[in-house]
Amino acid sequence: MSTETDATPTEIFDSLPYYDDDLQKYPYLREKVEQELARELKASQTLHPRVPPPEELFADNPLLKAELQRVGANQAFPPLDSLRHSLPAPTSTPGTDEEWKAALDNAHVQLQHQKIRQQNLALLQKYGANGFRIQNYLLEATAKQTEKTLEELKELIVEVNRERKNTQDRIGKQLTTLETRWTELISSVLQIEMANVALDAEIERLNKKEAELAEL
């Protein structure tokens, strides 16, 4: 059934799955339905117009977008560059001033990096435990809230299905009563038509008999 409004046409499809049991009564109907569904699934390659377009993730962040594409393609993570953490000496013997200056600058960078790491470790040792406790508390609260919402949704789904079943059972009984009444009325109409045919035949016979008597 489809209904149209002034703004946008709305399609509504409904059935009585708790009441209609033709597929259980007649197995060949189920086979036909499965064949039709398989044919439609193979034929339809386009999505429904109401399905929104795919969401583009990390459109404003090229690095995260590239990483998402790498994970989606099942590509291995690129190896870490360990050269920047080493202290290479000049390659030539003896080294030039530029080579020794580059090696010295690299040593200063590595030393500063180790100092920052030491400071971060000290801060983590001092404040990290409490930070992890707070984070764990927030995660546990979020998990409990999510589980509570999930249970509420499950109860709502059960209630909706129960209400649908009760409604369909009630409507199904009405449909059965109406169908029985319709069958009885059709049978009565057929009996009346048969009686009319019999009466027409009897009237025609009497008319013929009257005409014969009139001639005599």
Oligomeric status of the shown chains?
single chain
Q: What is the radius of gyration?
A: 42 Å
Low-confidence stretches: 1-5
The coarse silhouette is: elongated
What percent of residues are in strands?
under 5%
Amino-to-carboxy terminus distance: 68 Å
Number of distinct helices: 4
- Fraction of residues in H or I helices: 55-70%
Structural class by sheet pairing and helices: mainly alpha
InterPro entries: SPF27
Coiled coil: 136-216
Protein name: Pre-mRNA-splicing factor SPF27
Family: Belongs to the SPF27 family.
Walk me through the topology:
Elements: E1 2-4, E2 9-11, H1 22-25, H2 27-43, H3 62-72, H4 97-215
Antiparallel strand pairs: 1-2
Give an overview of the whole structure.
Keywords: Coiled coil, mRNA processing, mRNA splicing, Nucleus, Spliceosome. One of its GO terms (cellular component) is Prp19 complex. One of its GO terms (biological process) is mRNA processing. There is one protein chain. By secondary structure, the protein is an all-alpha fold. It has one domain (2-44, 97-215). The chain has helices spanning 22-25, 27-43, 62-72, 97-215; strands at 2-4, 9-11. A two-stranded antiparallel sheet has the order 1-2. 0% of the residues are buried. The model is unreliable at 1-5 (pLDDT under 50).
